[in-house]
Fold these 4 entries.
Entry 1:
Amino acid sequence: MNKEYDLIVIGGGPAGMMAAGRAAENGATVLLLEKNDKLGLKLSITGNGRCNITNAEFDIPILVNKYGNNGKFFFSAFNKFGPQEIINFFNDRNLLTKIERGNRVFPDPQFNK
């Protein structure tokens, strides 16, 4: 069976899932390939298995500074799609979040069952 795709994404980590999902939302026919049995496996084990989505430091220069010399690499990306945009992205899709100690952002188990 031959099937054509507008986009083939290799890797089902956070970036791959986001790329595939956004392309599909915009009408693309997408194939997402992942070698593991589950998508987002490494992300799902962050935060002691609770899926630490992002850090709620909304001041971009402070956030970038937390990464030391490597932070400069993230500056433009965080300015376009930073922690607040990530939280909004999930909340807009009914995955509600909560901010906990250390500005860690998790899916809110009270609303996401």
Entry 2:
Amino acid sequence: MKIAFYYPYSSIFSKYIVSAEHITLLGILFTGVLLRLPLIFIGIWRDEAAVFFDLQGETIAQILHNISIYEFTPPGFFLMMLPWLRWFGHQDVMAKLPSLMMGIGLIFASYRLGRMVSSKKVGLIAAAMTAFSQPAIFFAQEVRSFTPAALLACLCIALYCRIFRHGGERKPDWIAFILAMTGLLYFHTPGCLFALSLGVITLVLWLKDRSRDGRSSFPILKFLIAGIAIVGLYAPWLQVFLGEIAGGFSYTGVRLGDEQLNLLGGLFE
């Protein structure tokens, strides 16, 4: 069903067509905003407050040092929040707005992904499931990397499917996929498991395609090059990540000094 609106005084915008699909999507997005907006006023808790602590430093190098010692999360989210907090202040509500906006973006991204891989109906169902998902609602107000990472993961899958749609022939798709996957790795540590899983899926798809006649048009070489590029871009943080894995927990075995403990105590008072 389509509803047409006519505006006789404009030669350029003389006809507007709004489909039932778009009206439904707007309703889902509006509902998602209503479900998430009140939660940005609940204040912050320990892990969110740690973001403010980790960003204390006169240089980016000092901030990265803080993150490598006190966090099990890569620096992407913190570097995103650094200019935001400097521009808009450290108030709780302002600090939560980036996650809120990305939470709404995740609803739309779910719609686009569902529409791409299946149909308009599936896209709307995916958007509705995201809008009403309790974890998605809760994490959309947290000053942590969960919601941005979910949005990046959704984008990675969309670009992955887009690569297959165009037969792996479009360079912009590959570049966007490499950047999105690298961004995910720099925003959230479990992104490594996501990337590894996608690599295994790619290998299975290639083997399945090859088993038909012994030959394959599957762009496995391009995926291999993309994987090498992603690892190369992640290499600057890889040593820190491996050290955290070896230690089994964050803080990389470094004990806090009295001055740092006093600073933490003052932060939470």
Entry 3:
Amino acid sequence: MLIVFCPPEFGILMKLLSSEDEIVVGNAALCLGNCVEVPYAALPLLKTEIVQVLLRHTGGDAQKTAVQLNAGIALAKLCTAEPRFAAQLQELHGLEILSSTMKHIVD
């Protein structure tokens, strides 16, 4: 049996992802992306709105593209770590949003 609990650090990262400071948001997304590489670490986030939050930052109009890139990378790692996040992303039409954002960043 696998017992899963949400570490307090994830709560802190979720709060930081809602910051007005883009540098803080970008760094929080980077940290989250690194955390979910640990096996089973992403499971507690299933009960949060992390996919929506990261998608908003990825597809948003941040002044610093590093925020969009870090959020996109964290989102990709999350979807790779746990397929249920990929299903949430699909329900939100996230791939279309990501595709549109990447075209905008490249141009």
Entry 4:
Amino acid sequence: MRVLSVLSFAFIGVLMTGLGASRAHAAPAATPAIQSQMNAQGCFACHAVDMKIVGPAYGWVAYRFAHQKDAVQKLAHKIISGGAGEWNAWTGGIAMPPHPDLSLAQAEAMARWVLAQKPIAPPPPG
């Protein structure tokens, strides 16, 4: 009986430790609406959460915008207007196309999801 109690507490401890660690490092899943919008706009063709494809990783973007109070608005504007220059050292100057068909609310929802990713410092360019 005592062995069962000890094992139960050990199991609960392992679960609690694992849950805390996974929450600290797990990226939030995109809601179906955000996933659908980002798929429709082709976001995942150029971006991944933790590595560069064509554009910067979402984790790099979260890192760059960390602690900026107006990050959602800045990124939403960039999503709608497109842009180039800020990531040239990593992208070779490939511009992000504009997405003018998105509403500001849609772009802000996408920006919030991107900024909620685990911040990852970009590697040295090159």
